[in-house]
Amino acid sequence: QLHLVESGGGSAQPGGSLRLSCAASGATLGSYAISWFRQAPGREREAVACVDESGGLTSYAGSLKGRFTISRDNAKSTVFLQMNSLKPEDTGIYYCATAAHISYLGGVFSCRGGDSWGQGTQVTVSS
Which helix (H) or strand (E) segment is 116 a member of? Predict the structure, then answer.
């Protein structure tokens, strides 16, 4: 079973950037689509982005596309989330997970849910 560990969280000012990493072990990362989720204080967990097994297909929550970029390096068993133009509302705990369901409906790649989860990394955006 894939074991995931997030890192790279911390504090940033509005407009700043952070790069999160999700390191995998225990199985071959390239066999799994990976999603990033986040949970803000007092709110439900929400999906952020997803990448397919090869890294060739990605999907994003609509409001985040253009600011966040998901990528992966299977040789290094790591998935990344580059976050730019950060806003205070991006504050929360960020988790990576193996995607529970993937779809290519109508030629559009998407993911839903998560199976194996990391422990999360805190991101705080404030001035």
Answer: strand 110-117
Q: Give the span between the Cα atoms of 99 and 20, in whole angstroms.
A: 17
Contacts of residue 100, Cβ cutoff 8 Å, sequence gap at least 6 = 111, 112, 113, 114, 115
Please report where in the chains the tokens 């929360």 appear, as a residue.
92
* The one-letter amino acid at 3: H
Q: Other CB atoms closer than 10 Å to residue 96's CB: what's the count?
A: 30
Instruction: Say which residues have a Cβ less than 8 Å from residue 112's Cβ, sequence separation at least 6.
Output: 47, 99, 100, 101, 102, 103
Q: Taking Cα atoms as reference points, which of 39, 51, 47 lies closest to residue 64?
A: 47
> Would you state the structure tokens that stand for residue 69, as one six-digit string?
């970029």
- C-alpha span between 60 and 52 (Å, rounded): 12
Q: Answer whether 22's CB lies under 8 Å from 34's CB.
A: yes
pLDDT, tens digit, 9 for 90 and up, residues 17-56: 999 999 999 999 999 999 999 999 999 999 999 999 999 9
